[in-house]
Amino acid sequence: MSLERFISQAVSSWMSAEGPDSDIVLSSRIRLARNMNIYKFPTLFSNEEGQSIIEDIRKISTEKPFKGLGGLELLEMGSLQPLQKRVLVEKHLISPNLAEQSPYGACLLSENEEVSIMVNEEDHIRIQCLFPAFRLTEALEMANKLDDWLEENLEFAFDEDYGYLTSCPTNVGTGLRASVMMHLPGLMLTHQMNRIIPAINQLGLVVRGTYGEGSEALGNIFQVSNQITLGKSEEDIVEDLKSVVGQLIAQERYAREALAKTSNIQLEDRVYRSYGILSNSRIIESKEAAKCLSDVRLGIDMGYIKDIPKNILNELMILTQPGFLQQYAGGPLRPEERDIRRAALIRERLKMEKQ
Hints:
Layout: H1 3-10, H2 13-16, E1 25-34, H3 47-63, E2 72-76, H4 82-90, H5 96-99, E3 106-110, E4 115-119, E5 125-132, H6 136-151, E6 158-159, E7 163-164, E8 176-183, H7 185-189, H8 193-201, E9 205-208, E10 221-226, H9 234-262, H10 264-280, H11 286-301, H12 312-319, H13 322-329, H14 335-354
Antiparallel strand pairs: 1-5, 1-8, 2-3, 3-4, 4-5, 6-7, 8-10, 9-10
Helix pairs in contact: 4-13, 10-11, 11-12, 13-14
């Protein structure tokens, strides 16, 4: 498969599209957790109940399809190969937990991959809307439409005092998790993130790595999300997150401006050294690739590099993950082989922009 074709098939809309504050915010995600009141939670249900839930979702999606997304395709985890599931995780379309739930996990996926409805993850249903840039309000609107569509055909577990009931008590209430993926190299280079993260935690929000809880912030990419789902409306949760993210955007821009004033030549040198590594390396590990990609993206945003689109970070941070590299190669690769493939793919991708 040619690189052009591979990229065209692999890149989701959230990786390539621009939008509000897209120089700092890579994506906005809304996730709603729901459970049906006639089945036990996934932690307790039988194999038969798990399969019945999938069939219920299949029936709704085929007989009463949601309009406006070009159709939703049902993917059953039990019918996918481990590598295929890994790619879906790397694209942020399903969770690692769902990938491990075979054979009773599934997801409804939209053609543009902005919508993924996970079935039989920690809860029966997890509606996810993943939009490019800083578009939390639009993502919430779409998630609510999908929620209404499902609720027209299913009866959810709901309590008048506590709200929507979920497997984990931390999701009870609205069942809403809102998150924003941000590129924050300025705050990292000026050593401010260690001070900012505890302050954000005190506001009822949490800062995690690239792939959520327990993951590392590769390439200076962080996820900021809410922790509280009970006692607040969906709109209030989103507005609180938007307010904090807005402050982070302002602080990141200020940090970049300060770096340009006090360390301009050093920063430009860092950017071009990283660009040189990406353009010429024959072998590169994932952490080094992530660091160099972050530097190059910062160089693009600050005007040092003018002939490469800024979505290059979004794309290559995903395309150089182990699952994608092996999919591109057509089969399993040893770690060193992945490092060689990663370097080759990055070189090819950068050359495409020069043609």
